[in-house]
From TrEMBL:
Enzyme Commission number(s) of this protein: 2.4.2.12
Sequence ranges assigned to domain Nicotinate/nicotinamide phosphoribosyltransferase in this UniProt record: 186-496
Lineage of source species: Bacteria, Pseudomonadati, Pseudomonadota, Gammaproteobacteria, Enterobacterales
Family annotation (SUPFAM superfamilies): Nicotinate/Quinolinate PRTase C-terminal domain-like
Reactions accelerated catalytically: beta-nicotinamide D-ribonucleotide + diphosphate = 5-phospho-alpha-D-ribose 1-diphosphate + nicotinamide + H(+)
Organism, as annotated: Thorsellia anophelis DSM 18579
Keyword Glycosyltransferase assigned: yes
Name of the featured protein: Nicotinamide phosphoribosyltransferase
Domain Nicotinamide phosphoribosyltransferase N-terminal: 7-113
A molecular-function term among this protein's GO annotations: nicotinamide phosphoribosyltransferase activity
Domain of life of the source: Bacteria
Length: 514
């Protein structure tokens, strides 16, 4: 399916050209996070958003899609298709088409976009970018693009902001319980793909995750950064390790059970189904760590049947094999209450469950005590938990490990679609709003101030953002020519061309060294 750039609108946009006052030659709009009221927050949330994603969107939409589906197609073909779409929905003669023909004749998008540098952390109510037309005949184009600008902007920023919050939490507990922060780049791993809203959503959201971490299972996010952010100039874009899933584990276990039932000694024992599965999983796990992956990092999903037996009895049985491997075996529980599975449940019926996974692994494999007095598991074993890990839960788990005397580096979190999908444009109150126009050569302040919701009050007039020692500051109600002076919003796109581009390495350095 190939969508067209011209049709990336809400229907009411097609009639707005005729609604602007006669003599309008410019419309100036901005994109701003207005409130963090609905944003999932950690206890150390500082109210700043991570600027990210506009560059990739500009390249694939403003350049690639507009050229491919509009400017590089015959004008008659474009106009006929657009007329058919409009008349089918709105009726014949609903609008005229001369302005679309004129845009095609022009041969480029007469738009300028200014944005804060990607990787910047900016306060709520500070505009992230502005957009205005550069040719007086195309004043209508600025807000014709509002819907797609909003739809393709808010998610990347929200995901990048969420990921940075996870990093802040990991850094906090590393400072308290670890000798260094070497593990943090890999402590939160993107598991979100299967719960996202399609390919581009996965790519753009997953790219936001990779500003703060290197661990991901979303290949598309790596592709996206490679294509649109010169990811090949970074030492690493994103990494993962070989890992089992329930289908590979349970299929092997089922095949091994069939084999075991051909042995008279097994039949004579009259084993229960649970006991048969336990024997079969022992055999598969041993093959997994000695034959399939005899060295290197590998992850094993451990809760297909009896997680607590897997993490204790079977892990203990093959302790020598695990310690003899070059690399790490990472156990992955995938069900139950993460806090209780990792840190232990004092009300559980068995001692193993009361201790929790990290303490059980410590008792089997040992480790070291770091300079801060916290226990660090032997480097041949680890634990990753990727089910239902929210910011609040991750923070609680790290606090629980600290209380038990374990370093935060002992756990890796899989961060999934509950984090990256269970958000909306309202999480940070994003909106694209016009704040200025030029009508009959006069600069006009445009704003909204609904009495029913003060949070939706917009800025007034032409505006810029200046950087102060206390952070960014909005300066509005200025003349258009003043946006060129001391403006932290830099021109990144103008008249169909990318003017300023950032690499992944630039963005990571700006974000993580902030």
């Amino acid at each position: 399916m190939k969508l067209t750039a011209l049709n990336a609108i809400d229907w009411y946009k097609v009639s707005h050209k005729e609604q602007y006052p006669k003599g309008t030659t410019m419309v100036f709009s901005n994109f701003t996070p207005r409130t963090d009221k609905y944003m999932p927050k950690s206890s150390i949330w500082d109210g700043k958003v991570v600027v990210f994603g506009l560059q990739g969107f500009i390249k694939w939409y403003f350049i690639d899609l507009w050229n491919e589906t509009f400017f590089n197609r015959p004008k008659s073909e474009v106009i006929d298709a657009y007329r058919h779409r409009v008349e089918n929905a709105l009726g014949k003669d609903a609008i005229t088409y001369d302005h679309i023909e004129a845009l095609h004749d022009l041969g480029y998008l007469p738009i300028e976009i200014r944005t804060l540098p990607e990787g910047t952390r900016s306060e709520i109510q500070i505009p992230i970018y502005t957009i205005h037309n550069t040719h007086p005949d195309f004043f209508w184009l600025t807000n014709y693009l509002e819907s797609v600008m909003s739809a393709e902007s808010w998610k990347s920023i929200t995901s990048a902001t969420s990921a940075y919050q996870y990093r802040q939490v990991c850094e906090l507990f590393a400072q308290k319980t670890c000798d260094n922060a070497d593990h943090i780049n890999f402590q939160c791993h993107d598991f979100s793909f299967r719960g996202m809203s399609g390919l581009y959503d996965t790519a753009q959201s997953g790219a936001g995750h990779l500003l703060s971490f290197l661990g991901t299972d979303s290949v598309l996010a790596i592709d996206y950064l490679d294509i649109y952010y010169a990811g090949n100039q970074s030492p690493v874009i994103g990494v993962s390790i070989p890992a089992s899933e329930h289908s590979t584990a349970t299929t092997n276990i089922a095949v091994i059970i069939e084999k075991l039932l051909n042995y008279p000694t097994i039949i004579a024992q009259n084993l229960s189904d649970d006991e048969l599965r336990g024997l079969a999983e022992e055999e598969f796990f041993h093959d997994y760590i000695t034959k399939i992956y005899p060295s290197g990092f590998c992850s094993y999903v451990a809760d297909s049947y009896d997680y607590w037996r897997m993490i204790s009895e079977i892990a203990l049985k093959y302790k020598k094999d695990i310690l003899a491997r070059e690399g790490k075996v990472v156990f992955r529980p995938d069900s139950g209450d993460p806090m209780l599975v990792i840190c232990g449940d004092e009300n559980a019926p068995t001692e193993i469950e009361r201790k929790g996974s990290i303490e059980v692994l410590w008792e089997i494999f040992g480790g070291t005590v770091n300079e801060k007095g916290y226990k660090v598991l032997d480097p041949h074993v680890g634990l990753i938990y990727g089910d239902s890990i929210t910011l609040q839960r991750a923070e609680a788990i790290l606090a629980g490990l600290e209380k038990k005397g374990f370093a935060s580096s002992n756990i890796v979190f899989g961060v999934g679609s509950h984090t990256y999908q269970y958000v909306t444009r309202d999480s940070l109150g994003f909106a694209v709003k016009a704040t200025a126009a030029i009508v009959n050569d006069k600069e006009i302040m445009v704003f909204k101030a609904p009495k029913t919701d003060s949070a939706k009050r917009s800025a007034k007039g032409f505006l810029k953002v200046i950087e102060t020692q206390l952070g960014f500051k909005l300066v509005d109600q200025i003349a258009f020519e003043e946006i060129e002076i001391d403006n932290a919003l830099k021109t990144v796109f103008k008249n169909g061309q990318v003017i300023l581009s950032y690499t992944l390495e630039d963005i990571r350095c700006r974000l993580l060294n902030n």
